[in-house]
Write a structure and sequence with these properties.
The structure is a single chain. This protein is an all-alpha fold and about 325 residues long. It contains eleven helices and no strands.
Amino acid sequence: MISKFFFTGKRNFKDLSEQEILALAISSEEDDARIYMAYAEGLREDFPDSAKVFIDMAEEENTHRKWLLELHKTRFGDDVPLIRREHIQGFFQRKPDWLVRPLSVEKTRKMAEEMEAQAQHFYETAVKQCSDANIKKLLGDLAIEEQNHASLAHRLGLKHVPESVAEIENAREHRQFILTYVQPGLAGLMDGSISTLAPIFATAFATGDTWTTFLVGLSASIGAGISMGFTEAAHDDGVISGRGSPIKRGLASGIMTTVGGLGHTLPYLITDFWTATMIAFVIVFVELWAITWIQNKYMETPWLRAVVQVAVGGALVFAAGVLIGNA
């Protein structure tokens, strides 16, 4: 369990050399260019003007890659180390475009804004870790370029509406709120609400004793909350991903995990078994509805997909608990 928290098999960004940072930047620019071309292809038929914007952005990413390659050749030679995002702990990951189809201008704009904000954060962090003047200058210039990209992506969603600094700052603040609190909190709520269904209802139907069920639910909820909180805080320090303080994310995940489990545990303080169980059923329904609502509102998951994901997962775990309890 301890190894799970502290060893991931990935490199820590602060341990990378300047050559490895350049290599990581090169591979990241190449990946982003491919993603933008995929977005352009997905928008070409229905939104040709927006598709052209993403083609231009892909070409600019390729230009950035050439700059990085030239500097690497000058500073370290032709052999570029093979290092990619998935090799670095806490580094942001990109979704392949086929996972987010069908594409729309609004959805693609938001994904592009997130991509460029992450890239900007990466370059700003990398600058602080490098000492070579030429490397620092190029990385700093690229951070500014990525910031301009984010503004360009933002304008895709505006029609004859003047863009203001306040709008951009508000969008960044909202994104940071989601990354730091909503995502880990939602993961915790889902884990606490769904994973504790089996042990709680298995105990309830196996013993018929409300106090025993309450103790099992209480221990499962608190234990899951501690585990989820430590895992969230330990697996990503937030330096590269830009997801914010690991302590804040860990608290959000841990607290919401505990809350999710306690919701259908507290009714078993009632001494009558069936009254407590019926109330617990209702609370489970409310919890699953809340998870679906949060996914739709903040994570932009379509209602139908969110309902199916939550309902199927919850039903399977609940059924497992009831079957085991009655075995």
